[in-house]
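Attaching the record inline, Q. Sequence:
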Amino acid sequence: MVLLGVPLNLAPLVVGLVTFSVYTNDRLADSETDAFSDPEKAAFIGEHAHILRPLADAAYGLAVMVAVTGGPYAFSLTLLPGAFWVFYASDWFDSLGASLSRLKKVLVLNTTIVALAWAVVLTFLPLAFTTGRLTGGVALVFAYFFLRVFNVVEMSNILTVDGDSRIGVDTIPVVFGLSGARRALYLVNALAVGVATATLATGYVPVQVGLPLVAGTGYSLAVTACLGRWASASALTQVAEAENFLTYFALLAIPFVT
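Structure, as predicted:
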């Protein structure tokens, strides 16, 4: 909402509920295969499935109810992550022929679907609640979120390389190894730095808003350099995800120091 310059609204509540629902259902659907890559998480999901399933369904239902108050566009955007998840994680495509496979297993396409779904919702749902207009700044914000989500998804994939290899899920770390993933994410982060810089150069986003984006993407580039060189992959992914918090607090702090 700060990046888009729109008033505070209920979009964050909707996104939070949908995120919880989609990822809980994803873990429930993949509990068996997750046993290879993250046995502790799989055990927790299996033990509490009878609680998590209705909670996830209720969360999405509540999100839809709140979104209705924002109008038809907000309602439609709220349904989008769930629809993307069905295409991403279901086995329907396997039944159509050997040439078609579960989208979650397809290199780059799997991460692109995740990044696209969240970038669309994060960018356009706040606008739908406030009837905001589409501008060049909105396009830059969309590109920024797409690249940031793509990066963090592939970074998290380094934790599941062994499990993904066993079940035939092709991710960048699986196919190209950690050094190859590092080079690929250099490109993703470099593009993000370019987008963040463009928000300043074009004047679509105020300087006090654009600077934290540039700093955050620069931080991500530094973290990416540690990929394959950091002893603890789990710690590295947590450090990578900390970019979101650093950027957020910088957005809050800069008005007080400028």
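The mean pLDDT is 86. The longest helix spans residues 172-201.

More tomorrow.
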